[in-house]
Amino acid sequence: MHQLFRLVLGQKDLSRAGDLFSLDDSEIEDSLTEALEQIKIISSSSSVERQE
Prior knowledge:
Layout: H1 3-10, H2 25-28, H3 32-44
């Protein structure tokens, strides 16, 4: 997985999330499947607070 995805998703460093938009598509294409799986895990976690 791309290092920036690791920071944002793995370490929950949301301050770097905007940096993902500065990357070329080719830099992250190979990481998308793994990143989506990580997002699913995070979003289904009971520790995630949801706003209604």
